[in-house]
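Pasting as-is:
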Amino acid sequence: MPLLTRLIEIGEKLAANRYRNETDVREAIVLPVLSDLGWDIFDTDRVRREYSVGGRRVDYALFTNATSPSVFVEVKAPNAAKDGDRQLFEYAFHEGAPFAILVDGREWSFYLPGEQGNYAERRVQKVDITERDASDSCSVFERYLRADRVKDGSALRDAREDYKSASRLREAVTYIPKAWGELVNESDDLLIDLIAEKVVSLVGFRPDDEQVEAFLAKLQTENLSKPSSATEKRNNSASLETSRVTQPDLTDIRKISSQKGLRQVPLIIFGNRSEHADAISALIYILKYFASRDNNFLERFAEKAPGRRRNHISKVRSQVYPAKPELEIYTTDDLGGGWWLGTNIANREKERLIKIACEVAGFSFGRDVQIELPNTHG
């Protein structure tokens, strides 16, 4: 009988509770499936029943050579496979069988006992014949248990590749919170744009990038204040300590900020102090200052300033926000000389642009130019 037809028939009988005990599972499910997969179930050199393992017995040991078993199959009564994986692993370890299968008729669990992880992590597939599509189940059985594939080693190779893929996936899942934390902490411009566009879809108006960035900074602060483990506490402390070491010396800036009556963003250029109402005003001041000293500054700056999805500066005003023409009128500023700057920029991106401007102008950020933008440092 073709395997697909066999699995459909078994699924129908399982649903009708036609298999009563372990013997029924062995004789009416496992052996017919093995036969359909190309195993000669009457060849006792290939399919050995009640195979002795350290004084105990595994239901079936499948051999493709005369020296060692390639697959162990342990059979349990319907719905009685609990803790059967422990017993099966003991058998496999004792004999060095690379592949092991636990069957209760309804569920078939395919294991690689020699790999790392707990029992569930070393299970490369589980097939529930009553729940899974029969053709899908058929593909799994043929991939791991067809006699010729077991013999030439391709079944085991595929199982190991599937295990590695599942292992990589589990590892990737554990890094999702870390990735989210870093996106929030760095105020990634794509994340900011996604949030802003979602706000547009909800209320019809787009918040400034700075407002979204402030929300993300607050979110990150709240996350850091509630570490989930001692390890996270240590990591957060190390991260904050690193940021203190790598930040430029802003002692003079902080002194200015603490003086009563000064504005939000203090700036020092070559010892000359000025205060600006907001970060974008400070950025515009810096760009215009450098442009006044060098007629070619803005052209060179424009070559290095593009963001990942748009220009920040262009001689064609409409090219600053090519995908969002509605931002052109209210969020661009004339820098002079025909150059236009997009002003809907997150503070971290403003800081990046200021550093680029210093580099293009040949000055040192943190020494020649000192500024502390809101929400860019912890």
